[in-house]
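Minutes, project check-in

Agenda point 3 was the complex the collaborators sent over. CS summarized: four entities, 692 residues total, and the question is how they sit relative to each other. Sequences were read into the notes so everyone works from the same version.
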Amino acid sequence: MSRDEKKPKAPTIFDIARKSGVSYSTVSRALSGYEFVKSSTREKVLQAARELEYVPNQQARSLAGGRSNMIGVLVPDLSNSYISEIIHGIDDELAKSDYNIILYTTHRHQGKESEYVATMVNSGADGLLLVVPLISSSYLDALHQQDFPYVLLDQMNERKQSLSVIATNRAGAYEATQYLIELGHRHIGFISGLEGLNSATERLAGYKTALSDHGIHLDSEYIVGGDFRVQGGYLATQKLLSLQKPPTAIFASNDMSAFGAIEAIRQHGLHIPDDISVLGFDDLSQASLVYPKLTTVHQPLVEMGREAVIMLLECIEYPAQEMRQTILPTKLIIRDSCAPPAIMMT
Amino acid sequence: MSRDEKKPKAPTIFDIARKSGVSYSTVSRALSGYEFVKSSTREKVLQAARELEYVPNQQARSLAGGRSNMIGVLVPDLSNSYISEIIHGIDDELAKSDYNIILYTTHRHQGKESEYVATMVNSGADGLLLVVPLISSSYLDALHQQDFPYVLLDQMNERKQSLSVIATNRAGAYEATQYLIELGHRHIGFISGLEGLNSATERLAGYKTALSDHGIHLDSEYIVGGDFRVQGGYLATQKLLSLQKPPTAIFASNDMSAFGAIEAIRQHGLHIPDDISVLGFDDLSQASLVYPKLTTVHQPLVEMGREAVIMLLECIEYPAQEMRQTILPTKLIIRDSCAPPAIMMT
DNA sequence: ATGAAAGCGCTAACAC
DNA sequence: GTGTTAGCGCTTTCAT
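CS then shared the predicted structure for the full assembly.
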């Protein structure tokens, strides 16, 4: 060690026991809220704990078989506000309990999610919140086998036997597309999301259904690949604009893509929404920062985080949860980036 | 428990010991990289561990006096990209080691930072990264007393005896102000940051110094209070614009404030940068998303996170670190929100 | 209602 | 170089 050796050991329940004159197992009971403790004893113990500024050692607690009070949160990446907002919701809700967050990002080692899951489980997390895009059922199986509490966020397990919370991606996309149609657009470009993602698939489906429900021919040229990021949206929009007959509106699978679209459109010398409309999905906080303010489908990310926590805590408390899905509603937020097409065409 | 009771206990070093035919302390040594282990033995152990899919139990590890491989990260809040970017950097760098992040947000209980610090320390974090704005030295003292490794991020302890990483706030603000002056501005409004924050104070100082160095009278009317957030910037700008002689340029203490300024200016019917220039600080990813793209002082947030991790890990490794500060350079990023004043006045 | 005692899985002296 | 033995701080039977 460095300078002085006087690391003042933190007080343990043993110290509390001495101070309050009871056995240390009684202290443990009093502290952990066990019901059969005389209330006078409990008071005495709590008092002593307070005076000693006692802080429980979570490691010991969970080693001994109790709760660790840690929730493992596995996310792909931190560079994305989409994730930040979800985490924000998780954090908010968790703050009400005394759970803490252990944060894992998979970007560290691509595809090693299962390893992370194993670590989290083995490191004593009481439950897991998974925001991992591409779910491989390998570790989901392991989780199930151990009856380990976890909740899937914004992702469905195809076998649907997980607790999960998602938003109405398809309906949201439908509503958005319909809005564009009602504005008079007949040529609506679509920037798709990351392949394989449930949300991406659903949003595309919503777009397609809306089109066909309104008797609009689906032009496959109008669907171009994006990646849920600014750059992808930018590139996709360039393609769209260079089409022989460019769309009069672009529906981007998420706001990030939409931001890229805005950029590309501006560079092309076109004006939003006069020359072309842009619509996003997510309603990130940036959406009202860009100019023009982005009309977009609000996905309740913060609330999804909250909801997932609620489900998880419930599942930890009462392990025999039946698997269910919470579906939160999306909502079209009309701002300034959409308008009727300049030249109405049918 | 719920359905089946067959929770398959995770293998322990004891299982590895049996499988590889050595004592379990040897296993511990082999696994934790102790050097005096015959390499054939080590290989045998590692092999067995692999086959068993062994995952170490961190709780036990740290309880027994080893490392927990957890770094506690204390942040005020998650709703802010400024924080997100720092965390991003932390995460990036930490990914190279096998440390994990325990994330604490103080917004849960205002002013209870010390309690959090105590919890983190007591829960076996190997080190702390503190991004807490208003540092109360109360827990810093405790940390010092215990020789507990920690690094301050974007915050200085007035007594300067902590490891810390900050950016050149004052110089950055100076450069920015000077840029505005060189553009021809003589009436430069300043939206201040959150009171008490080191960065806020330094930026204001940089602004003032630049002004006086260029012989420009400091008009106290031009310095209006902000709070580092959009709303604060918005309100501050309204005040600035309603001045008898409004400034021709506004330097906001951070990008968030600048975004608010842009909004207010737009609502006022003015154009950026033709009618008035806006300059920010931080260079959040949003800065190039807004329109016009924000000219701002780049603060290397991601790198600050990285650097803090590097320092912390070093400090954990070699506890006898002398206290030092790493100062990372800011850089003026010229985009589209600044231009010479419409009417040159002296 | 409370005390005693046995570990949880692991590291770190201490022996040999 | 490797085995033996204590605990780390706590929860949880099992007694009483």
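Noted in discussion: Chain A has a mean pLDDT of 89.
Follow-up: revisit at the next meeting once the mutant set is ready.
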